[in-house]
Amino acid sequence: AVAQLKEAQGAPRAKNIRLLLTIFIDDCRLRTEKVQRTLGARRLTDLKRTVEKIPGEQVHEFGNKTASDIKKLLASSSQAEAILQRVRSADVSDLLCRELQLSLAQTMEARVQLYETQIQLLQHLQNTALHGLSDAPSASDPTLPALCVVAERWRHLKSFSLAKLCAECERHAHEYGDKEEFLQWLVKASDQKIDQLLLMQKDPPAVMQDCLLPTLCYDLLHENAELRKMANAYQLRVFILHKRAQAHHIHGGGGLGGTMGTLGLSKSGGVSGMGVSGGSMSAGM
Question: What ranges do the domains of the chain cover?
Fold first, then answer.
């Protein structure tokens, strides 16, 4: 329908045809958005119901059956991490579902951190019971559970693939008649994906940050995300210009993902040739 509308733009006495095609295209887009919203809401609802099925291991007496409690907490933590990955990867299209996704991911991160904290405490009590209070190994690091959450966000940022995002967004290219509009949409989609991976907001409240971790950990995470956003915007602009200049060579296909190697868009998430990489965050930050 979009192709027919473009053909009818220059046709004489085709005003009614253009009107009907425009109405039909708008109706299709509205129906598509409605279906996407419904599917996204159902995915998140199913995930929320799955969260409620995770057994809550409440350790009332620390010290009795410590090994058994640790195994139960490890199993619950693994389930929570698996659900967290599914929540992160859920495809949502509208603002309400995106906010629900953010809230659900934050809840799962908090639950994973709680399990890790309980495991650290039980392991320390187990060592104390085995070796005695004076000969017990040094106490567990209380910042380790929170640091693991930050490190997990860092790994997700490192694994972000701009090439994969471009391939996914190629189906929307026909909706934008101008390359600049499509570029702006791509940059916005890239920024939203990074924010979604890091559970970031423009002004993150203090409640989202662990009070035991230094603020520098979160500042470095946010600075890395902002650098990646700028690098992605630059590479997307260069890529659009390159595709415009080489349009006569790629009429037969190749699309947005066809010339990724030409501009150094790495499918593994890194931005090659620009000095911007995800790096790694060690637990000893």
Answer: 158-285
